[in-house]
Amino acid sequence: MNYLNRRNYNNLINWLMNYCFDHGIGACLTNELPDDVGGKSYVIPADLVVVNNKWHNELEIPFIFAHEIGHIKTGIPCSYHASISNIDKGEADANKFAINLFIEYCKENDFNFSTCFNFAESFYIPLKFYYLLPDCTEDWIIV
Hints:
By secondary structure, the protein is mainly alpha-helical. The chain has five helices and three strands. The protein has one domain (3-141). This is IrrE N-terminal-like domain-containing protein.
């Protein structure tokens, strides 16, 4: 990752941290999670997002962070396992929230993209979640 990308990455992580603080969510980036766990979210005893700072693909960490915030904001923490349909819905809702959170970040920083796919690539949104983009894209993305 070059210096410019590192600066942009750090700005996004800082923005996500500030978002948490502004919304009463605790946030922790840690090197203590197992390698196969990207992050966790908790609503009891308090809203808390924990993100694995040593995730194998560092560029995915902001999406993981935003996704875990999504679990808190949608009220379905990642430990919610009442049924398989709730797990799927909870994960999809957290992913949609993450995408919308990145859209909010872009609006605040006057970032524009020629297509929703350029937007997704820029934020390292995993390809398997691109099906969520049409529900989250707005006219401002298209230049």
